[in-house]
Design goal:
220 residues, alpha+beta, 2 domains, globular, RNA ligase (GTP) activity
Length: 220
């Protein structure tokens, strides 16, 4: 997969993308200003996921998006982990490029330097092998076990871990600290959610109304 996508990912590095991707400044209750952006692997992760979704469906004899899975120990499972890790590394590098450009603008406009010590990098569509505590209903008790946790539209929220929950357009975003709650698989939401789909929004909200709403809130 890496070789298949090489021509695309070299051209797109350092670009924000479309959809719900954004750049914003966040002012917190301790008078700190955070640079925040939401962007990822620039569709490379999506293409990779679609490819392995098909592989998993064939491996399980099922259909796409029918909870088909890859055996981790299989050749295909190991290939998926390799390609997923590449997508995550690419997404991080993509965000670094943009954050550096963002920082230069802040320096130029305010004279302030960026403090990189609290940089938060968080994924929201991925899987990871983690030590999990969960209630085994069959055994009637709690168990500790290493499991592969898949987070789709969710982020890791281990105890003390810094995270990000973006708000909807026109509302505040949040810098959060995880509680490590076992019942939620040490996870939290990665955004505010939607009251309507993107297609519905295009049908029901005019461009003029949208721009007016943003301007009323002082958002460019």
């Amino acid at each position: 997969m890496k070789q298949t996508l090489v021509s695309k990912h070299t051209r797109q590095l350092g670009t924000l993308g479309g959809g719900n991707h954004f750049v914003e400044l966040v002012h917190d209750e301790e008078d700190h200003v955070w640079m925040m952006l939401h962007s990822g692997s620039r569709n490379i992760g999506n293409v990779t996921a679609q490819h392995y979704d098909g592989v998993a469906a064939r491996q399980c004899g099922g259909q796409r998006e029918s909870l088909a899975y890859l055996q981790i120990a299989s050749k295909e499972g190991q290939a998926y982990l390799t390609d997923m890790t590449f997508c995550q590394a690419y997404a991080l590098e993509n965000r670094r490029f943009m954050m550096q450009a963002f920082s230069k603008v802040i320096k130029r406009e305010t004279g302030k330097d960026t403090l990189w010590g609290n940089m938060v990098n968080i994924h929201h569509n991925y899987c990871e092998c983690e030590q999990c505590t969960y209630f085994d209903e069959a055994q009637g008790g709690w168990r500790d076990e290493q499991l592969w946790v898949t987070r789709k539209g969710a982020t890791s929220a281990r105890a003390g871990q810094l995270g990000i929950i973006p708000g909807s357009m026109g509302t505040g975003s949040f810098i959060v600290r995880g509680r490590g709650t076992s019942e939620s698989w040490q996870s939290c939401s990665h955004g505010a959610g939607r009251s309507m789909s993107r297609a519905q929004a295009f049908r029901h909200i005019s461009h003029q109304d949208f721009v007016g709403h943003m301007k009323a809130k002082g958002i460019v």
